[in-house]
């Protein structure tokens, strides 16, 4: 009986929380609508997905990450093949797991680098396009319920991004010091 009461209390608390969240979201939407209504200038929209897929920077980023992924996969397949031939299977599997973790971390870092570069260029290009188009606000096209095609400046943003060449290069990998070497390093004199 007590479990049913606790479950009912939890459901009531959850419902109250959901209602508060919905009320807060509605308040933000009303505030945004009021702000946009007070904006006497022009509003434009941009399809962010299209920009990232069709811009030269987006295409270069995808190509870079695809090539890196293939390179890392080939390396891991080669290591796995070598590990299967080892006599000490446990040590070989442990080494392979370590390499897999390192490859995942490297790919994540490279992916973050690519996204940061593209996002920075996107923001700069959007700001230039906003000024060129003399609009006050640019919204993501997914946020708009109805769009006049004249308000869509996606291609203008893509063109602006394409004016800036972007290249991606591998991040510098810092060699890890072996634990024994780190412990054996002598302390600096006088410290």
Spell out the helices and strands N to C.
HEHHHEHH
User: What is the average of the pLDDT values?
Assistant: 78
Q: Give the DSSP E fraction (strand runs of 2 or more residues).
A: under 5%
Helix content: over 70%
Describe what you observe in this structure:
By secondary structure, the chain is mainly α. The protein is 70% helix and 4% strand. It has 6 helices and 2 strands. It has helices spanning 2-38, 48-54, 56-85, 89-133, 154-162, 179-184; strands spanning 43-46, 137-140. Strands 1-2 form a two-stranded parallel sheet. The protein is elongated and about 75 Å long. It starts with a helix and ends in a 7-residue tail after the last helix. Mean pLDDT is 78; it is low at 2-6 and 177-185.
Essential attributes:
191 residues; mainly alpha; two-stranded parallel sheet; 6 helices; 2 strands; elongated; disordered N terminus
In summary, what is this structure?
With 191 residues, the chain is mostly helical. Helix content is 70%, strand content 4%.
Tell me the layout of helices and strands.
Elements: H1 2-38, E1 43-46, H2 48-54, H3 56-85, H4 89-133, E2 137-140, H5 154-162, H6 179-184
Parallel strand pairs: 1-2
Helix pairs in contact: 2-3, 2-5, 3-4, 4-5
């Amino acid at each position: 009986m007590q479990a049913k009461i606790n479950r009912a209390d939890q459901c009531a608390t959850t419902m109250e929380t959901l209602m508060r969240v919905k009320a807060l979201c509605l308040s933000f939407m009303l505030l945004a609508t009021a702000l946009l209504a007070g904006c006497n200038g022009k509003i434009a929209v941009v399809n962010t997905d299209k920009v990232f897929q069709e811009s030269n920077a987006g295409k270069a980023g995808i190509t870079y990450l695809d090539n890196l992924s293939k390179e890392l996969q080939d390396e891991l397949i080669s290591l796995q093949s070598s590990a299967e031939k080892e006599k000490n299977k446990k040590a070989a599997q442990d080494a392979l797991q370590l390499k897999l973790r390192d490859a995942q971390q490297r790919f994540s870092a490279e992916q973050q680098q690519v996204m940061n570069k593209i996002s920075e260029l996107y923001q700069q290009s959007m700001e230039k396009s906003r000024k060129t188009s003399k609009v006050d606000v640019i919204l993501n096209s997914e946020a708009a319920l109805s769009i006049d095609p004249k308000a869509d400046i996606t291609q203008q943003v893509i063109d602006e991004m394409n004016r800036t060449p972007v290249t991606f290069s591998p991040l510098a990998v810092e060699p890890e010091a072996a634990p024994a070497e780190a412990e054996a390093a002598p302390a600096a004199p006088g410290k």
